[in-house]
Amino acid sequence: MTDSVQRLLEQLRLGIQSSGAVRTARNATRRKPKAGHDPRADFARLRAARRKAKAQQASWRAAWRACRGGVFRGPARQAADAVLAELAADPVDLVRRADALVFHSSGGKDSVVGLHRAVQAAKCAGCLHKLVVVHADLGPDTEWPGVRELAQRQAERYGLRFLVVAAEGGFVGMVEKRGMFPDSKRRLCTSTLKRDELAPIYTQITAALGLDDQALIVSVYGVRGGESAARAKKAALSLDSRASSGRRLVLTWNIVHHLSTAEVWQEISEHGLEYHPIYDTGLERLSCAYCILAPEAALVLATRVCFALGLSIPTVYVELERRIGHTFKPGQTLAGVVAAARMLDALDGPLAWRRGDAVRRHLGEEACRRWEQRLAVAT
Ligand code: SF4
Prior knowledge:
This protein is an alpha/beta fold. 55% of the residues lie in helices and 9% in strands. It folds into 3 domains: 2-76, no CATH class; 90-254, HUPs (Rossmann fold, 3-Layer(aba) Sandwich); 277-378, no CATH class. The protein has helices spanning 2-30, 40-55, 60-67, 74-88, 91-97, 109-124, 147-156, 170-178, 188-209, 229-232, 261-271, 296-309, 313-324, 334-348, 357-363, 365-378, and strands at residues 100-104, 131-137, 161-166, 215-221, 237-239, 248-254. Helix 6 links the parallel strand 1 (100-104) and strand 2 (131-137).
């Protein structure tokens, strides 16, 4: 096991380094020649860069294929996946091998359980100092109140460093600028507001490590397979070829990928973990108050929660929809969702909930009582 993991990591490293060298070589050929410049010099540079890439390892082609899209193909892929799955199954070994661990926290239920597990593994490996928590703030009038503060408290409970990234203008600014809401096929909200903003963090961490060799950074997420069909297809551990470079090899670790919703709530109750009160309202996900992927029932419920909390989010989004002339989802306006929520409030009265209702709903009254006690002790 140890040898195969080492071999695979080396292969991934070589692949990433080769791809970097090839990219450099390609960029060299794309540079505009200056007036009077001899184009043969560009080809000579390309040849030299390719020779360098080849010299880095014997099986250059295999490694180059390996890092394109972060996958091996055929039997090589099966072998690589098996080794990565084995490594993911031994969190303490994985943490020990990493030079740094970056936990991406949304502050949600899966994140808090994932963070707790990552901390336990890091403590067992004697390297809690390697772990840093990063939160992507999606901007005002988008997230539920208190998400960023909660993510910070969850990190500080273990004495971890907490970093925040925030794109200028946030979600609302991005939609306003594009004149369109993102959709499931073009999730610009995730790529622009999260992935792109997080990229400099890897550079900072790599620089701070100051290693001569390529650093191994493990990027930890609270992504569960049970959340959606797309997430079910994700591996517990995989190569992030986009974030990797010649200076760093980045692996993505979906630490709670195998857990069910009930198991997540069980761990929250058992360890007295603090979760966001929005789950108590009946909403099952802590994300943007209005998520482009949410079903209509969740959008209507989110609107009723906004009414109960006196939040301006529905007004902001309906105004945004009107200004840009583009609907929140294809064939579905938020104005319609807000109207449906008003009708339900008029029929049933405003929503009401109690702290701990999410634990009660999933595990019962006794588990809720234990959660309250443990949370009080932990905080
Ligand atoms: S929660 Fe939904 S809307 Fe918000 S960033 Fe994620 S995918 Fe986009």
